[in-house]
Amino acid sequence: MSTDSVSRDCAAADMHEANERTRIMLDAMPMCCNFWDENYNNIDCNEEAARLFDLTGKQEYLDRFAELSPEYQPNGRLSSECALEHIRTAFATGYNRFEWLHQKLNGEPVPAEITLVRVPRGDTFIVAGYTRDLREFKAMLAEIREADERTRIMLDATPLCCNFWDENCNNIDCNEAAARLFGLKDKQEYLERFAELSPEYQPNGRLSSECALEHIRTAFTAGYDRFEWMHQKLNGEPVPAEITLVRVKRGDKFIVAGYTRDLRELKAFLAEIRKSEEELRRARDLAEQSTLAKSEFLANMSHEIRTPMNAILGMVHLLFQTGLTEKQRDYLAKTEQSATLLLRIINDILDFSKIEAGKLEMEQIPFSLGNVLQGISGLVDGHAAAKGLELVLEESAGLPPVLVGDPVRLQQILLNLINNAIKFTSRGQITLSVAAEEIVAGSAVLRFSVRDTGIGMTAEQVVGLFQPFTQADASTTRKYGGTGLGLAICRRLVQLMRGEIHCKSEPGVGTTFSFSAVFGIAAEALEPARAGRAPGDADVQGAPVVRSGADVRILLAEDNAINQMIALELLAVKGYCVDVAGTGIEALDLMRRNTYDLVLMDIQMPDMDGLAATTEIRKDPRFDTVPILAMTAHAMTGDRELSLAAGMDDHVTKPIDPLALYAAIDKWLVGGRKEWMNIENVHPPRQPR
Question: Are 573 and 661 in contact (CB under 8 A)?
């Protein structure tokens, strides 16, 4: 065999091998490939071409190729004409790419992207066609379009105005609510006239255009911004709004979505609230003025009533010291009884006023429960005996001997209940019982009961018993008097002691009032001051020396002539040396010219009142140790505090109880002002009612 023959055989083998490799590669390609010759005949394809159209093989693809496209393309032209045109373009230019609608033999559409490439083949050219199946891509695009449509529908349906800015801060889109908010015909008008939908300046005085740009840039940088904004309609009507800007991804870039919340209704609502608040404030001010006027009226009436009451009771007390016939003594006793009853009514009204004002405060001081009960017994025994009633005291075992609380208010509650029981009982007995409900470390809950054998009440009468101005018998011909305030005051006092009060009653059998109260428990061994023992009380070193007589010099500042006379008579009983001042200025003058052991100071006086006079006295260090006691008809809420704030040391109210007056004077004369001031810093004194 010649060398040329061998070379030709080798070349043919190499070409066959190359063609086989090309065929294998084409058949392995996942993209449909086919080929056209210069006469536009489909001369070959790969295996994927048959697979794409669910055919049995490449030959069926080539035989039925004309059936693999619909008669017309989506543009309305014949598929055969369009195909020939695209192939010619590829032969002429070497390249062509376009979208094409194929179909399977069953008519199922197969959208595709066709790429035609002219390639050499020997000494001529053929066109290779690559078909990219677009079904998944088209489905994805359809889903995207559907999602975009859903988003558009949702945005247009939302009641919030929405619009969008691109990276150049251009307003590129909006929803239907944007047009509705400003009364515009459509979204396009909103986008075109957006700059007109804000006033030139915002309420803060800055240009709207500058502020808007600044907020949008902040949102692009930080991803979020929220602020209030003043929009306006084209007619100039203001539209206050809250704007929320959010940076969102769009493709490979970002845009800013803006949500506008119309604040007109909210602003109107807030304006209504402010208007209502202003009306409430005015109503409150009027009510406070009315309350203040009522309080001032009540304070004035209290003072005006107590001043003559002081004269009446003082004169009665002085008359008892003179020689009287039995008939005169009886008349005088009845006068004193009536005046005392009137004073009790006044006290009830004043206490109720304090409670209503929320200014009644409970003391927390150590006291002996036994002493309180004995004191009550001493006060009511005579009253009960006068009606032939027996007062029985029942104390359970194990009661703490020393409690911490307000003994004066506890006594007030019990006296009120016992006096009521005596009033409504004509025979039998009154029983006061005390028992411990619960005792824990440092605290005790005690139960007090007052039981009588009187007229009793029906269930209907008991219902409103603790309401102010309510009585079991409110008829004008009722046999028993009273203000109807006593039980209401008791209920409020019990509540302040963290307890509850109840009543059980049966007509003709009797009534039981019971209440609980919470107290602290004090150690029995108390320091003298904390135990309530006055400075100078007896101790192991001997009995205290109570000063009295002419060695005690007292200044009495009082402008009322009758009250001057009564006070002088009461002080004369003790033998005190007394100077009288009719005004605050006179009191100051006497203080500067003389030396006094104690001052009794009226509050309401001409020229200079007692508070101002006391303030002036306290400015002089020479009088630091001189006790000043208010002796006044001012007994309303805060009067005692005003006295102490002015520099007084105690507060004795009119009508003057001689024993209370003597006790107050002795207290300050024996202890001395400095010692008592140290003690009162722990437990401030209070004048018993």
Answer: no
- Within 158-186, residue ranges assigned H as helices are 176-181
The tokens for 241 are 């709004």
Quote the DSSP letter at residue 321: T
User: Could you read off the pLDDT of 220-242 as tens digits, one per residue?
Assistant: 999 999 999 999 999 999 999 99
Q: Please enumerate in sequence order all residues whose Cβ is within 8 A of that of 94, keeping only pairs 6 or more positions apart, or say none.
A: 117, 118
User: What are the phi and psi torsion angles at 102 (to 5°)?
Assistant: -90, 180
Closest CA to 615 of 604, 625, 628: 628
> Quick one: DSSP state of residue 533?
P
- The predicted-structure confidence for 457-509, as pLDDT tens digits, reads as follows 888 888 767 765 555 454 433 444 455 567 888 888 899 999 999 999 889 89
Our measurement of the distance from residue 661's CA atom to the centroid of its chain's CA atoms, rounded to an integer in Å, reads 47
This prediction has a pTM of 0.44
Q: Give the separation between CA 470 and CA 464, rounded to whole angstroms.
A: 7
Nearest in space to 39 (alpha carbons), one of 77, 93, 88: 88
The count of residues in the chain is 689
Which value, to the nearest 10 degrees, does the dihedral of the CA atoms of residues 188, 190, 194, 198 take?
170
| Whole-Å CA distances, 466 to 300, 321, 462 | 28, 41, 8
Distance of CA 70 to the CA centre of its chain: 77
Nearest to 162 by CA among 255, 91, 64: 255
- CA-to-CA dists, residue 166 to 197, 341, 449, 640, angstroms: 19, 89, 84, 75
* Cα distances (angstroms) measured from residue 405 to each of 438, 560, 572: 16, 38, 37
**Backbone torsions φ then ψ of 278, nearest 5 degrees:** -65, -40
Q: Count CA within 13 A, CB hemisphere, residue 609.
A: 10
Retrieve residue 30's tokens: 């996942």
Contact, 454 vs 510, CB < 8 A?
A: yes
